[in-house]
Amino acid sequence: MKLVCIPAYNEEKIIGDIIKKSLQYADKVIVCDDGSADNTAKIARESGAQVISHKKNQGYGAAIITLFDAARKENSDIMITIDGDGQHDPEQIPILINTLQENNVDVVIGSRFLDGKSETPGYRKRGIKIITSTANFGADFKVTDSQSGFRAYSKKAIESIHPTETGMAVSTEILLKISNKGLSLAEVPISISYGNDTSTQNPVPHGIAVLMSTLKFISVKHPIPFYGFPGMALVIAGSIMGYQFLDVYLHSHIALLGSLFAAILLFLVGTILCVTAVILFSMATLIREKN
């Protein structure tokens, strides 16, 4: 069964059209109404979709989690996620499905940047590229658009991926889980429209929040470069400063207490980072062995 899943929040103006177009390419459409204050849920039902409603707004990731759970309950062979704000064109759904089936991959991402013709606003493009570069560091593959919500998942991917992030960083979390599970991935170029962009979030703090969450996931997967290397550098720096303090004190009997405190602080922080790296690395190794 081909299932289209749509996370939606206050999208009464456009949701009906998205559902009707999506039904042309799917056996069923499920909408997760994430606590909308308008008629999103009502219009979605009238347009032919099954609606799962959150009592209050929980975030984009929470809607994606609900939709993954729904896809597993429906025993779907293919799940397509498409945003409910009208930015994605449902008529491009066959492109993702055909790529998934013809190339026998587990996940297909619709990328705004793959063909180099994106009309994405400059500030948004720069932010997405920074987040994507960070995400690529943690994955075993490289993508051009880590934040695209227009994706197709195979049955294997649906069963394997269990997101936990309730915010926008869920897109990156899913990428890292695709990598961790050894699932195959492909990208296809898509067009996108920002004419119905109704986001009320300030792009700067929003982008920083997504980047920080991305770094959190990657730091757990790669604790040695994230914690171990900086920790070792701080331990070495603290040791050098401590040696210099002793050298000055023994030869000149001058106690540079500021240098001493700095040396102790650097050494302690470095040690904590190194211990953190070892613990996380050990936990990650155990988890991989169990899987």
Helix content percent band: 40-55%
What's the gyration radius in Å?
Answer: 24 Å
* Widest β-sheet, arrangement of strands: 3-2-1-4-6-5-7
In quaternary terms, these chains amount to: single chain
Largest sheet: 7 strands, mixed
CATH fold-type name of the largest domain: Spore Coat Polysaccharide Biosynthesis Protein SpsA, Chain A
- The overall strand count is 7
Please give the domain count: 2
* Average of the residue pLDDT scores: 88
Beta-strand share of residues: 5-15%
How many helical elements?
10
Q: What is the CATH superfamily of the largest domain?
A: Spore Coat Polysaccharide Biosynthesis Protein SpsA, Chain A
Q: CATH architecture of the largest domain, please?
A: Alpha-Beta Complex
For the record, give the distance between the C-alpha atoms at the N and C termini, rounded to a whole number: 28 Å
Keywords: Membrane, Transferase, Transmembrane, Transmembrane helix
Domain Glycosyltransferase 2-like: 4-160
GO molecular function: transferase activity
Protein name: Glycosyltransferase, cell wall synthesis-related
